[in-house]
Amino acid sequence: MKLQKFPRFLAVVILFYAVIEILFKLDVVNGYLLHIINLSLIYVILATSLNLINGITGQFSLGHMGFAGVGAYVSAALSTLVFKLSPSKPGDMLVFVGCIVAGGLAAAVVGLLIGFPSLRLKGDYLAIVTLGFGEIIRTAFNNLDVVGGPRGLLGIPKFSNFTTIIIASALSVVVIRNLIQSSHGRAMLSIRENEVAAELVGIDTTRYKVMAFTFGAFFAGIAGGLLAHLIQLAHPTQFGFIKSVEVLIMIYAGGVGSITGSILAAFGLTFLSEGLRLGIRSLADATGLPIGGEWRMVIYALLLIFIMLFRNEGLMGTKESKIIELPEVE
Amino acid sequence: MKKSILVLALLACVSLVFAQDIKIGGIGPVTGEAATFGISTKNGMMMAVEEWNAKGGVFGGRKVKLIFEDDKGDPAEGATVYTKLIQQDGVVAIVGTVMSKVTLAGAPICQANGIPMISPTSTNEKVTLVGDYIFRACFIDPFQGTVGANFAYNDLKARAAAAIFDLGNDYTKGLAENFKKQFEKLGGKVVAFEGHPSGATDFKAQLTKILQAKPDVIYIPDYYNDVGLIAKQVRELGFKGPLVGGDGWDSPDLVKIGGTAVENGFFTNHYSSEDTRPIVQDFVKKYKAKYGAEPDALAALAYDAMYIMLDAIRRAGTTKGSAIRDALKTTDLNVVSGRVKFDENRNPIKSAVIIEIKNGKPVYRTTVNP
Q1: In this complex, is the C-beta atom of B214 within 8 Å of any C-beta atom belonging to chain A?
Q2: N vs C: which end of chain A shows fewer Cβ within 10 Å?
Q3: How many domains does chain B have?
Q4: What are phi and psi for residue A46, nearest 5 degrees?
C-alpha cells in the first residue's frame, strides 16, 4: 500500500496547531480550552478507529473502550515503572512514545485474540460478544492489584500535551484513511455492503474483519495511552460500557462510514458538552433561575435525539470533506 | 454580531459587579452513579457559603461566590472540571470532590497550579500524598481501626478481642490491622485474627476458631452485606458479646440482612445527626429547614470542608494559594464532624462517632477521640 500524504489535510492540521499554539502563548486560549481540545483530539482517534470497525467494515462493536483500557494500562504501567527507576532523563519523550506504542500493540494483540473466535459471529451476536469483552477488561483491571485494582493506577507522569496528542491524532487519521483507500479497505467496505456477495467474489471476510478489529484496537490503545498520560490516572470505570457507547454516539452523530464525520463529531460533542456547562451557568447567572449544570446532560441528550430524528444518517452521511478526500485510485 | 457584543458587555458588567467576591470552586457528582452523594455535598457546601456571606463575608467584607460543577463521578470529567474551575473561572481554592478516583484526577491539577483544595469525603490514603496543597476533611480508613480499639477497650471494657476481615480488600484489612495495633498498645490481647476470602458466604470455620479463643468482643470491619452474614453465623454459634465495625456498616441493609444478630453491634462513623453537641444540632435544624431532609455524613463533611477552607482564607487574609495552604496547615476548628487539626500528611486528626444498633435502628452512642 502506497502511503498517500493528504497535503490538504496536513496543511489544515499544521495551521490548526500553529493557531492554537500562538493563541495559547498570547493567553487567548486558556488551559481549560486547551484541555478540551486535547480531549477532542483523543476522541478523534477513538471515533475514527471505531468507525473503521463499525462504519467501514459494518461490524457492530460495543467494547471499543476495552481496547483503549488495555492501551492505557499497559502504557501507563510501563511509563510509571520507567519513571520510578529514573525520574527524569533527556530521552523522556522517546520513552513516552515507546510506552504509547507498546500500549497500542498490546491492544492490537488483544483485538486479534478476541477477533479470531468471535468474528465468525454476525450482527447482534457480535455486539453481545464485544460488550462482554469490554466488561471483562474492566473487571480484570478492577481485580488486578498490581495496577491498583479498584483504586486505579496512580502517579502516571504527565507526558501527553497538545503537540504529542495532535501528532498522534493526525497520524491515526492518515493511516486509517489510507487503509480505507487501499485494497484491504475496499474489501472491508464490501463486507459492509454485502457480506455474502463479498465472500462469493473470493474475499476472506473473517480475515478482513479480524484486520479491522486489530487496526481499530491498536488506535484505540494509542488513544487510551494518551488519555492516561493526560489525566495522570487510569481507572477501570473509564473503560466501561458507558464510555464505549459515548464513542459509538460520536460515530453515529458524525455519520457512520465518514472519517470527516467522526472528526467533526468528536470535536462537536466534546465542545457541546462543555459549552452547555458554560451556557447554563451564564443563563442561570443572568436570569437568576435555579438551574444547575446537571441539566446540561438533558439538553445534550435532547440534541442527540434531534440529530437522529432529522438527520439519521449523521452529520456527514458517508461523505468525506475535500480536505481528507484522496485522489481517486485508478 | 451586535448581539454578541451586547452579551460580552453584559458579561463584563456582571464580572465587574462580582469582582470583589472570592471565587471558590465546588465539585461533586450530582449526576451519575453517585448522584445522591453529589447532591448532599452540593447542599452542604451551599449552606456553608450562605452562612459565611450572611455573616458579612470572609475578610474585608469580601463575600464568597461558589462555582459548583458536576464531575459525573468520572475521573476524565473530573480532570476537565478541575481545569475549568482553575483556568476559566480563576477560583482561589477548590472544595471537592467526593469519590477518590475523581479526586485523584483533580489533585495533580490543583498541585501544579498552586490552588489549595480540600476533599470532603475521599478516603483513599493516596489523595493527600499528591502534594502539599491537597487536604481532606474526613479521616482515612486505617484511623477507624484505632478509634474502634479505643472504644472496645475503654467503653466496652473488653480485654480480649478477636478480628475477622476480608483478605482481598485493603479497606477491611487496614482497619483490622490498625485495630490490633491499638488494642495491644492499650494493654488488651488480640486472641484471634482471622482472614476470610472475598465473596465468602460461610464464615463458620473462622468463627469457630475465633470463639474457641473466648474473646470479649469481635471486630468485623467488613461491608454491611458480609457483616450481616457474619453476625448471624456468630450468634448461631452462641456468641453473645458485642460486635464492632467501621463505616462499611453504614447502610439500612445491614439490619435487613443481619436481623436481630446485629443487635449489640457498634460501628465507627464520621458523624451522627443525633450527636448532642450544639453545633451539630444547629446544623441539622438548619439543614432540615432548608432542604427538608436529614443531613447525611456527606452533607456534613461537605459543609465542614467548606468551613475549613473559608476559615483558612479568613486567617490568611489573602487569596494567595500558598498563604491559604499555610493557613490550612494550622487549622484548629470545631466543626460538625468534630474538632479538626491536620497531621503532616494533611489528613485531619479528629474524633469519630460510635453508632449502636438498637432495636433494629442505628443510634448515636458516643464520640471517641483518637
Answers
A1: no
A2: C
A3: 2
A4: -60, -45
| Residues B73 and B50 reside in one and the same domain | yes
pTM as predicted: 0.82
Write out the three cell numbers for B149: 480499639
Show which of residues 31-50 on chain B sit within 8 Å of chain A, judged by CB atoms.
Answer: 31, 42
Q: Does residue B121 lie in a domain region? A: yes
List, for residues B197-234, the tens digit of each pLDDT value: 877 889 999 999 999 999 999 999 988 888 999 999 99
Sorted by where each starts, the structural domains of chain A and their CATH numbers stand as: 7-310 (1.10.3470)
Q: Which residues of A fall within a CB distance of 8 Å from B14?
A: 285-286
Nearest to B69 among A227, A231, A293 (CB): A293
Nearest to A32 among B30, B70, B84 (CB): B84
Residue with cell 453504614: B250
State pLDDT tens for residues B48-103: 999 999 998 888 889 999 999 999 888 889 999 999 999 999 999 999 888 888 99
Q: Do B100 and A36 touch (CB under 8 A)?
A: no
> What is d(CA B220, CA A249) in angstroms, rounded to the nearest whole number?
45
Enumerate helices (H) and strands (E) in chain A, giving the number of each.
12, 0
Residue of B nearest to A275 (CA): B84
Chain A residue numbers touching B83 (CB-CB < 8 A): 31-32, 35
